[in-house]
Amino acid sequence: MRHPCCGELFLILPWLLGAADPGRVEFTVRDAATRDAVPCRIHLLDPDRKPVKPIELTLPFWKDHFVCDGTATVQIPAGEYRYEIERGPEYTAIQKPLIVDAGKVIHIEETLERIADLANEGWWSGETHIHRPLNDVALLMRAEDLHVGVVITWWNNRTQWNGRPIPERPVTIVDRHRMYDLLGGEDERGGGALLFSGMKMPLPIAGSKRESPPSVKWLHAARQAGAWIDAEKPFWWDFPVWLSTGQLDSVGLANNHMNRGGMYQGGEAWGRPRDRTQFPEPLGNGFWTQTIYYHALNTGFRLPPSAGSASGVLPNPVGYNRMYAHVDGEFTWDAWWSAVRAGRVFVTNGPLLRLTADHQLPGHVFQSNGVLELTVEGLLDSRTPVAAIELVRNGHVERLTTLPAKIRLTESGWFLVRVLTDETHTFRFASTGPWYVEIDGTQPTNRRESCEFFREWTEERIDSLRQTLTSDQERREVLPILDEASRFWAERAKP
pTM for the full model? Predict the structure, then answer.
């Protein structure tokens, strides 16, 4: 039946209609190495693969799953089911059938094995976009083996801090290797969404209209407050404007249009729509996202990719889209963000891609007076079969037959490696952050083309706003900022 308020579809539980008593399922999930109970995520599905929420569940539940500390007792109606157990991408996944008899107790004991231990290699996981209740976050992070999180507690007109004191120390320590920012914020309006973290108090964004004040106002305010500023998706209409300010810290390459169960069905929402002949369904949005990011790199901006799942709004688990940053030495909150700023990152919603180029991590700048020949090598693990390993340099994609791979670079710019899986229902991938190349002080040959791409985009936005802004005051407030961005891209396109 469909909930009368939110319209969400729920499975009708037979016991509510007078059927037989439910059965009880007792889960125990252990780590194969330690034999200890390990926090994890559990999905219960009916024969039509519709999610089932257990009766009177007190554990954190979202859309199609709940999390536990490694043990859980749940009640569900008698019938045939399937359970799936996961703990982030570094562990094996379990999928098995389940038959529940009325009034009976079933004991299930499963073991999760590590397929990789990235923290032991210096790679620590995180994500920038969590919308779950603060009281649940610690367990959610342990259940997903996530180390860094940004929890959005103020968002447009919503805030969790009305009538509550702002915490003096926004970074909450879960344990020695897990921590989260409980003062993360989001400005999501007509031009798209900006994510903010590392702040001591929320911005006064409540009451903002769809287009005014312009999003750049809050971007500048966040910068003055020392925030980390993340462009939540690169296809948002105001992305070229944000980029032109030079104040972005990262770009959401693995974003919440990419979901565990499939791609977001609303196209680019209110972002710039893609050409669907060039980027067809169902994976077109993923390739469009990456194409725009590549244009941004071509224009000379050295921005690391980021990742966010929007669990609590979109149907993802926490950490489904995640980023890994390589920390040299002790893992701390500041060390992790410093590693991201340096570009020592990869993003993923599945494959675990740890590569170096001539023993240098992503973010490194190679300088040469002539042709560069490098070897790209490292480790790749994936639960989902890999369909392609690709080298992307200055936006051009070429297939790599194997790793290690030798590459030859003849012009300035950047390169990265991405991995595509054989999933067809969702964009499941991994991408390193870019390495940068400076040869004889030249610019990439396609820099002008990419600057024109963003200038034309900005002009489209200006034309649209001239039609939709409702007052002269709004036009005076918003349009000059876009005109300035258009001039920026025109000037940057010059040789």
Answer: 0.94
User: Phi, psi at residue 214, to the nearest 5°?
Assistant: -60, 150
Contacts 24+ apart (CB under 8 A), 168-176: 170/199, 170/200, 171/333, 172/137, 172/138, 174/137, 174/138, 174/141, 174/142, 175/142
Residue 20 pLDDT:
66
Q: Where does residue 39 rank: exposed (0-12), middle (13-18), buried (19+ CB within 10 A)?
A: buried
pLDDT band at 115; cut points 50, 70, 90: very high
Residues 200 and 172 sit within 8 Å (Cβ to Cβ): no
Distances (CA, A) of 371 to 367, 399, 405, 412, 413: 10, 21, 17, 10, 13
Q: Residue 485's domain spans which residues?
A: 451-492
Residue range 74-101: mean pLDDT, rounded: 97
The answer to whether residues 246 and 106 belong to one domain is: no
At 11-20, the pLDDT tens digits run 444 434 434 6
In this structure, is residue 2 part of a structural domain?
Answer: no
Amino acid at 416: L
* Same-domain pairing of 298 and 310: yes
- Phi, psi values for residue 285, rounded to 5°: -60, -35
The CATH number given to whatever domain includes residue 58 is 2.60.40.10
Instruction: Give how many domains the chain has, as a whole number.
Output: 3
pLDDT tens for 222-255 read 999 999 999 999 999 999 999 999 999 999 999 9
CB proximity list for 204: less than 8 A, separation 6 or greater: none
